[in-house]
Amino acid sequence: MRLTRHRPRRTSIERVWRSTRSSGLKLVSRWRHSLQFRTVLLTMGMTLIAFAMVGAFLSHEISSALFSERLYQAEQESRRGFDEVQAIFDRAETNDQATGQQTIYNTLKVLEGDSGSTRRMFLLLQKPGEQGQRWVETARSDDSQITSAVIPEELREAVRRDDGQYYQSIALPVGSSDVPAIAVGRIVRVPPGTNYELYLIYNLSEAQDTLSYIHGALWVGGAVLLLAVGAIAWFVTRAVVAPVSDAADVAEKLAAGQLEERINVEGEDELARLGASFNHMAGNLQDQITALAELSRMQQRFVSDVSHELRTPLTTVRMASQVLYDARDDFDPINKRSAELLYHQVERFQNLLADLLEMSRFDAGAAVLDIGDADLNAVVRSVQDGTAILAENVGSTIEVQLDEDTCMVEMDAKRIERVLRNLLVNAIEHGEGRPIQVRVAATDNAVAVTVRDHGIGMTPEDVAHVFDRFWRADPARARTTGGSGLGLSIATEDVNLHHGRLQAWGLAGHGSNFRILLPRRRGEELVDEPLALEPPDAPVPAVDTEDTAVILDPADADATVVLDERSDAASTAAPAEPDGTAAGPRDGTLDGPRNDGPGGPGESTPAGERAGTTSGGTVAGGAR
């Protein structure tokens, strides 16, 4: 026996609902993505509204004209009929009931029949409270369903008041349905001198049939007109939208790198001129992009070649400077100082050359990771030990806080160590002798390292440039630890290779905080943020200082840096994160006035400036 899972059957209502919902979603999607579909529907909708308004007006006018015509005819014929019947009754001589009844029926027969295009019937009713001899109680046309209930009470009361002629629209029963009619009534004196209510009823079914035919013709004509307008709108919009759609497709291919794509131009109208202009623009862009790409390759090759070619003579110069530096005690003071300057500048030149070679590898896409399981805590401790002497020289202390004894991460330990060393040296350079905190925290899929100093902080003008190559916030500020000016750029590229993020926060006069976010395992997506970018001890600028903070708008895909209204500084734009969103909540308030290599920090601006924000690690503030 084979057991299968029972699946409940869908009812017809569920199937209809799912089908309707699917169709509705398709229509909504088509409405949002098709200009032609939207234009045709809007044109047909507006045409339908206009036709409904015109049709309602025409229907009202035609029905009013038909009713007025029938009413005028009924009034004229009724007046002549009432006068004729009253004259006959006045001349009639009746002595007994039989003769009186015969006279009354024969006379009323005059009012019955086909009067032109409108059928007419009569109804004779007793006038309530009338005294005198009565030959008949009521009389009506043969084969009719007319009774006193057909005549509205309002009309009867109006007829009883005086000898005038009155009318009212009524519903006349014919067979199993009602048809529109007009009832006209007046008092007549019937032999032997008794007053009765006499009503003439005009059947308007033919007029109603005429109006129904006109309505049907309007509906059919409107439907045909609506379809015709829709077809016309479709053909017209297609003639305009099709070239635009082709241009969009070609533009997407150009954006994807297919620079040889062009629009097929036909005719000499505006769209043809647009296509020709687009092709001309695409051709110029292709030439410029090709030229720039070639120039970039030449520049990269030049930097790489020069860097390689300089290594040999630099090694010779370094050896010579080392010999002079070791023998400096035998020189006079001037030559001794010259030997020291030569040695230190050659060392700095060697660091710069090494950084240039590294950047050339990044530009050429030749940089690769040596991935392996490594203890991030051990890397942090190693960097702490390596920079302890530098921190001691400026009076700073490095405090390391580790949430766990070990923190294993799949990473290139040498590159991450270089990033941490660069950040820590920058913090020492700009910490103004105050303590520096380094903290490591981790979740199941991410790790974070923050480097916090309490030095000069950041300014808004530094936001867009903090990760630029060779950029200095204040060229007048002297470097105390050397450095090539490429440190943060290289750090950003190293973090990018790990699919992580390098971000920073800063506030003028209150220091800075750099954060590294890395996936714990290779290829995982960064979801968690183990440590906040803004440090817990960060003051609120509007309360604690007179400065105005610069924040990164997390809702803006372009990551626009927005200044407080009280600030006269211009807004600065920073790139978005790799996923297209701005760096996390308050992600960054940063970017400090620094940009240096592992050998030394960058420049800074005096305290008291406004705060800035930015993020790197998919390139922040213009980093590549």
TrEMBL record:
It is a multi-pass membrane protein. The keyword Oxidoreductase does not apply. InterPro entries: HAMP_dom (IPR003660), HATPase_C_sf (IPR036890), HATPase_dom (IPR003594), His_kinase_dom (IPR005467), HisK_dim/P_dom (IPR003661), HisK_dim/P_sf (IPR036097), MtrAB_MtrB (IPR047669), Sig_transdc_His_kin-like_C (IPR004358). Residues 614-624 have a biased composition (Gly residues). SUPFAM superfamilies: ATPase domain of HSP90 chaperone/DNA topoisomerase II/histidine kinase (SSF55874), HAMP domain-like (SSF158472), Homodimeric domain of signal transducing histidine kinase (SSF47384). Residues 305-522 form the Histidine kinase domain. One of its GO terms (molecular function) is kinase activity. This is Sensor histidine kinase MtrB. It comes from Tersicoccus solisilvae. It is found in: Cell membrane. Its EC number is 2.7.13.3. It comes from the Bacteria. It is an enzyme of class 2 (transferase). Residues 566-624 are annotated as: Disordered. Residues 238-290 form the HAMP domain. Keywords: ATP-binding, Cell membrane, Kinase, Membrane, Nucleotide-binding, Phosphoprotein, Transferase, Transmembrane, Transmembrane helix, Two-component regulatory system. It catalyses: ATP + protein L-histidine = ADP + protein N-phospho-L-histidine.
